[in-house]
């Protein structure tokens, strides 16, 4: 009989959200830990065992880091770096040695005592992200314990899949390093995985998305409910796992996989097609990127340009700040890869949930110990506010972006503007940066346009003065929703209230697009709404002509564009904008979607 397990489904646009395969239980990660006291004369020996195990794991992680293929998702390298950092942290690397010396206990025991101490510290932090990082510490320690026990890395023992068979890994937890290792093994065809631990923001979830594998996480006692070799269907869309499904269920999932594969093949054929509505309105589909390496993926997906380059990721997870040359290299690389297609580079959006390391902050003169997270970080010193508070930081970045404008079509985008005086100050800084470059005889495009993000309701309600000063606008709907509805976008307890179909949000979006149209100021949407296929027609109906989204969404949105006509889109938008209730709005959109499918079938 079919057994059903329930957890948190994780999928990305890159997969069908379904995997069918044979269960493979990964060796339990709770190792049998020997605990015993030692004689003083054995202290050196135990410390040497610890040192040896640490250095074996160090080489293991370094090797994996070197193996990261150039095209691999950025998160992969970042997680390996994080595990390497954890391994070298004195709290883990030195404290167990002291415990061996002072308490006269064996290496394994000392390491597990320290592990519990470090995890206790992490788990007391009231933040899902940090709480989940204790799992990273556990994974690193388990690696060391395995080496102390004389074993091999856990994934070295994964059984070989028979011809074409996919393996669905069932584990307590999967370390990013292990996932990467498995993904790159030629003899293992990985279908997806099920873990007992992990939440929606865990590294396992983030990596699964970027590796394009479906997963169901947080399934209690999964390893006791599945037997090695069981036939497993993983349905990440619904967050469930079917163990030994019956023939009917299996056939239904196979059919879903087949339809998805067909659809993907169809979408790939759209790559070279120009995005035009049925009645010939051209729509620009650009990509959002976080690192220069992502530009290639954007091009491969057929992006018309980069609509949002989130530069803050170049500044995060490091102890120094990137200097002008390093920034220039990064920005110029994107401009070169895009070969003349527009590249919108957003100035630093640091603050709120994106913080600089303490050492990097010290280089800005911020005293050590100053809290990084104020009581209301999303309303605090963030984005343009941060840049105006640290003029050198801002000027350095502006010079680097301007220099990159000499090798491509670069536009400067300023985030989180709320006040007109912020625009005026930002523009004054751009002018100052240009003077500085002229003094140094450095090349730049003097006409590189400066635009602003509309992501604060106050900005969306002051459009005339914004339009007067800025060359283009970009609707950051992720933040616009957060600030319009007073929902912290990082707080899962209010996530159910975060609604892009709230009439107030839609009104602000529509007004901004209309104001842009009237004044001939280009307006794009670069928040997640732009990549939501079900909103493509609505946004076109509101008058939107430029979308920017994650590269993986571009073809699916293009398909909708090709299927939309201006007239029907305008009708849809006017119906939606007349509705005052998100439930009604949803119903209107669903009806439009059904009509679209029916029209296609004819
Ligand atoms: C937005 O707020 O919609 C946006 C695109 O910016 P970010 O998600 O980086 O805050
Ligand atoms: Mg934003």
Overview of this structure, please?
44% of the residues are buried. The longest helix has 25 residues, at 43-67. 48% of the residues lie in helices and 12% in strands. It has an eight-stranded mixed sheet with strand order 1-8-7-3-4-5-6-2. Strands 9-10-11-12-13-14-15-16 form an eight-stranded parallel β-barrel, surrounded by six helices. By secondary structure, the chain is α/β, with parallel strands linked by helices. Phosphoenolpyruvate (PEP) binds next to strand 10 and helix 19.
Labels describing this entry:
alpha/beta; 8-stranded parallel barrel; binds phosphoenolpyruvate; binds magnesium ion; 602 residues
Please report the number of helical segments.
Answer: 24
Q: What is the mean pLDDT?
A: 88
What radius of gyration results from the CA coordinates?
26 Å
User: What is the terminal separation in angstroms?
Assistant: 41 Å
Q: In one word, what is the shape?
A: globular
Q: What share of the residues lie within helices? A: 40-55%
Strands across the major sheet, in which order? 1-8-7-3-4-5-6-2
The description of the largest β-sheet is: 8 strands, mixed
Q: Quick one: how many beta strands? A: 16
The ligands bound in this entry are: phosphoenolpyruvate, magnesium ion
| Structural classification | alpha/beta
Strand content: 5-15%
Low-pLDDT runs of 5+ residues are none
